[in-house]
Amino acid sequence: MRFDYLARISLNNLRPLLSLFSADLAIDLGTVNTRIYSRDRGVVVNEPSAVALDDRTGEVRAVGTEAKEMLGRTPANIRVVRPLKDGVIADFKVTEKMLHYFIQKAHQRRTLVHPRIVISVPSEITQVEKRAVAESAYRAGAAEVNLVEQAMMAAIGAGMPITEPGGNLVVDIGGGTTDVAVISLSGMVYSRSLRIAGNHMDEAVGNYIKRKYNLLIGERTAEQIKIEIGSAYALDKPLTMEIKGRNLIEGMPKTITVGDGEIREALSEWVSTMVNAIRVALERTPPELSADIIDRGIVLAGGGALLKNLDKRIREETELPVCIADDPLCCVVLGTSEILSNFNLLRRISIE
Question: Where do the domains of the chain lie, and which CATH numbers do they carry?
C-alpha cells in the first residue's frame, strides 16, 4: 500500500514536468486557415495558412495573419505563399516552416516541447499526400503524428452521435475542399472530397467582376465580397456593396456598385456542384441510414457553411432538415481535440 501511495505521489509531482515536454495538440491544417487546439488551453492558434518569403535571402518575413496582411502589397523581392492547395501540401518546405512556427506559438515558444499531434486531412488524399503531411509535422518537432479525416472531425465537433449505429450526414466546406460524408459506428459509410470550396468561390467572384465590368480586383477583395453580400438563395433584404479595383481598359482605379443577385449568379455553379454532391451521397446511402438522416438532418460545417442562405437552398433541394454547426469555423479542430484523450476512438478512426 505504501509503495502504491508513494508511486502516485511521485507521478503527481512529475506531471507538470511531463506536460512541459509533451503537450498534445489537435491541428486543422487548412488551405486558408490553420487552427491548433491545446488540451490545456483550448484553441491557441487561429491564423491564415500563409507565409511571406524574401526571395533575395530565402528568409521567412512573416507567417499567418501578418503574412496575409501583406497579400498584394509586397515589393518584388517578397512573395506571400499559401503552401497548401486544395487541402493538401503544395510546398513541402514552406509548410514545414509554417507548422514549426505555429507549433512553437502554441507552446509559447518553448523549444524543448515535442508534442503528440493529431492532424485532420481531406477524405480522399493519396498516400503520398498523407506522407507529406505527417513528415512536415515530424520535421516541425512532433513526437508522434496521427491523421484523421476532416469530415469525421467536423461531425464530432458538431456533436453528432458518430459512435452509434445511425446515419449522420455532414458537409464540411473548407477553403480548399468540401467533404461530404455519411457516418455510422465511427466509420465512413460514404465519403467524397470535392476540390472545390471557399477559395473557388472567391475565384468565381473575381472572374465574374472581371468579365462583366472589366474590373480587376484582388484576392482579399473577392473574399470580402463573398462574405458581405454572397448568398446561395434569394435574400429577404437586397444588399449592395461598393467595389474598388483597376479598370482593365483604361488602366485606372475605378469604383463600382454590385448587388447580391449578381454575386449569387457568380456563385451559382459552385452551389449547384455542392448540392449535386449531397444528392449523390443520399442516393448511395443504405435505406436504414437514410431513415436516420430524415430524422437527424444534414449538418453544415466549415467557413463555407456561413454563405448566406446556403442551408435554405440545400433544404429546398433535398427536402431534409439542414442546420449549421454551432461553431462552423472551429468545428473540425474542436472535433479533433475531442479524440486527443480518447485513444480507443483515435485507433479506430486514424487513417495513418
Answer: 20-152+333-349 (3.30.420.40), 164-196+268-327 (3.30.420.40), 198-266 (3.90.640.10)
